[in-house]
Amino acid sequence: MANDRAMLERAEGDLEGHIALIADEFRAGFAAVERIDRPAVTIFGSARVAEGHPVYAQAREAGRRAAEAGFAVVTGGGPGVMEAANRGAREAGGLSVGFNIRLPAEQIPNPYLDIELTFHHFYARKTMLVKAAEGFILFPGGLGTLDELFEALVLVQTGKIVHFPVVLVGSAHWQGLRAWIESRLVAHGLVSSGDLALVSVTDDPALAVDTVLACYERRCAHGPGRPAAAHPRRAKP
Q1: What is the second-level CATH architecture of the domain 2-218?
Q2: Which helix (H) or strand (E) holds 148?
Q3: How far is CA 115 from CA 33, 36, 70, 96, in A?
Q4: How far apart, in Å, are the Cα atoms of 117 and each of 25, 77, 190, 220?
């Protein structure tokens, strides 16, 4: 953690050492992504949701359905929604992947991972969570989930990634955020109305998975003027 904080400070430090650490982490991440031999969906949500909570059950169902469709399930590797999604994938006989993060309060990898890598740096980890996936499914969560949501939307909006659906599960949780975007950002011209097409909302985890699968199959384009492009990285098994 001290090394990570030092990298984010403006004061000069061990420049070459910091670059080497970052490069090593990206190299390990890219190698882990290469081990994923099928298309994948990344699932996000709160680490604080325990088994028995309705959201845990929904994430577990999403993981199971994705695995049954031949997709790997990628998460942040920790407890809560992450554990539930990985658990559902494992129970369905699918490939379960976790990209964990080292935190001051240690986030222990959940026990349902076939491929697991723990990162020191959020930016390396976040790259792999996008690179590995053909789309995002987000369940209710806190600041980390919101961070991943808006980063994905910016990447899609700016054309850095294409054919990349973003699905929010839990309309009661997400509707306030969507209303705020419409009333404050769209209404004041800070984003275009078409930007709202970048994200869909549902209460059905099965429909969330189907949305990602359908986009993968038809190479859907999100956002105005998004051109057709080559098929995603990995062929479906």
Answers
A1: 3-Layer(aba) Sandwich (3.40)
A2: helix 143-157
A3: 9, 8, 16, 7
A4: 10, 8, 38, 30
State the average pLDDT over residues 167-178.
97
In this prediction, residue 195 carries a pLDDT of: 82
For the record, the structure tokens of 220 come out as 């859907």
In sign, the C-alpha dihedral spanning 45, 140, 232, 87 is positive
Q: Which residue has the tokens 């053909």?
A: 134
Stated pTM of the model: 0.88
Residues 36, 161: Cα–Cα separation, whole Å: 19
Beta-bridge partner residues of 136: 42, 166
Residue 118 CA to residue 46 CA, distance in Å, equals: 18
Domain boundaries, the chain: 2-218
Taken in order 153, 157, 159, 160, the sign of the CA dihedral is: negative
- ∠ CA(221), CA(226), CA(232), 5° rounding? 50
Nearest to 204 by CA among 46, 65, 3: 65
85 membership: H or E segment, kind and range:
helix 81-91
Q: What are phi and psi of 51, to 5 degrees?
A: -55, 140
pLDDT digits over 24-55, tens only? Answer: 999 999 999 999 999 999 999 999 999 999 99
